[in-house]
Amino acid sequence: MREFLRDPETIALLALAAHIFLVAVAAVLVTMNRPPSSAIAWVLAIIFIPLLGAVVFLLVGYAKLPKPRRDKQREVNDLVLARTEGSPLISSGVDWPEWLHSLVALNSNLGALPMVNGNSAELLPDYNGTFDAMIAEIESAASYVHVEFYILVLDSTTEPFFQALARARERGVAVRVLSDDLAGLMFPGRKETIKYLRDAGAEYHPMLPLRPFHGQWQRPDLRNHRKILVVDGRVGFTGSQNVIDASYNKKSNLKRGLRWHELMVRLEGPVVRELDAVFATDWYSETDVLLPLDSRTRVLDPGTALIDAQVLPSGPSFDNDNNLKLYAALIHKAERRVSITSPYFVPDESILMAIVTAAARGLGVELFASEVGDQSMVYHAQRSYYEALLRAGVRIYLYRAPQVLHSKHFTIDEEVAVIGSSNMDVRSFSLNMEVSVLVHGRGIVDAIRRIEDGYRENSLELQLEDWIRRPVAQRAFDNLARLTASLQ
Question: Minimal CA–CA distance to 345: which of 358, 334, 360, 355?
Answer without folding.
Answer: 355
